[in-house]
Batch of 2 targets.
Target 1
Amino acid sequence: MSMKLVIAALALLLSACGGSAESLTVDNATYRAPLTDGGVGVAYFSITSATADRITGLSSPNAGRIEMHATVTKDGMASMERLDSVELPAGQTVIFAARGLHLMVFSPQPVAPGATFPIQIELESGRKEAVSFAQTLGTDHR
Ligand SMILES: [Cu+2]
């Protein structure tokens, strides 16, 4: 093989390993601890998957259970709906934020000041992303 061919093959390999087709980006991951013992924590984040996928599960070594909820307003009344999965259209950012999609964290362990709260996001494709959620203050979990 000539040196030119070797370089071309290497360039191909490098671009294949660039990972853009597989990329998953999580931003603005924040966690609000409950104010009282036995309360429920809430977590927000935004997520972008380069390929179409779905969030199918969430877990944390520091929580009993994590659910995905949507806040829906019907006739002026806000209520929450539990979601089994959330669609991630290819290349589109899906935002979990106040008064919209959110994570509810049941039986959370207390987090030390300045420490992060770990949550693993599981996708239908089998991908798993371990995310460190930064603590924020606040009480409105919707
Ligand atoms: Cu909720």
Target 2
Amino acid sequence: MNESFTVYIEELDKVVKFVDRVRELHQLDEIVSRGTAFPVAIYGPEGCGKTALLKYVARSLAKRSDTIVIYIDALEQFELEKALLSSHREVLEVVRDVSSVPIGSALARLCMSLVTRLASRISLKGKNVVLLIDDVYRAIGLENVDRYTKSLYEWIGYLHEKFEVSNVAIILTTSEGVSKRELSKHTYVDLRMLWNLSREGFEELVQQLDQLRNVDVEELWILTGGNPRALIDIARRGWNVERWMEYLYEGKIRRAMHLVGREKLRSLAEDPDSDWVAAERLEEMGLMIELRRASAVGTVPDPCTELGVGRDWAWQLPAYRYVVLRRIGE
Ligand SMILES: Nc1ncnc2c1ncn2[C@@H]1O[C@H](COP(=O)(O)OP(=O)(O)O)[C@@H](O)[C@H]1O
Ligand SMILES: [Mg+2]
């Protein structure tokens, strides 16, 4: 899985080359080739690149003749072509039969029956069935996290028994802390973490976005920690990081300062592991994230105060920490 692949960045109306993720793709390739006994749920900071990675996997697997791959963007509400990518046109035919409004969240709910119906058109025997469902929990509702994930788990066994598939791999993604916490209580799901881009990958993306070559890569790295969406957000603001930080403050931090309190924020800015109760609260607000170093896809960076990364907790963007400290100091 390493041929060149491009991604369209809607906000900038620009196509860029997919960067980095060599280790992650290698690990996911292994997971898919082996099959999964449990659904794999990948969580990570907002904008770290989960969707881009999953789509890459979908496109590269679609070329394999022994593999049936179905990618569902559970949050897509309007266009079927965006909500569904598949290796087999029969999947689209089945979708048209099953659902009058075949948008993302409906597809995510129906995915198991879609594959069962697909089996009446093409034989699944000896095939690898790969199901990739993006942002699933936000789409189906947090109250359904357990039931839905457990039924996917049971369904893996069913596909083996009923259709003699060679193997099944199910990979889900979620960006949001509550579903991740819910999943971490259960044994029927394999919870994995994905981090931001590596320094080299990040620089490659900066170069593609900044044709004029006049941005300060070091500063961008220190503020974004390699998060591609953050980088794109800065590029959209004409590379004006001050304006971008204003937006972060008004979007999320001001609220946290009122609801969580300055002292707790200061303590977490100085040491992300210092207050688990407040860190969980900030995770719910999309500001921090719990780290799972032992079960990461790719790597999670070592603790680094400046980047807001602790051993167990990290700020989703170093800039959040920076803005907190600056505002508290005022
Ligand atoms: N490896 C990558 N190479 C190039 N662009 C990327 C890469 N990963 C993510 N991006 C871009 O960064 C933005 C955020 O990524 P996305 O996959 O949407 O994040 P997430 O799904 O984790 O919120 C998107 O515009 C995406 O196209
Ligand atoms: Mg996404």
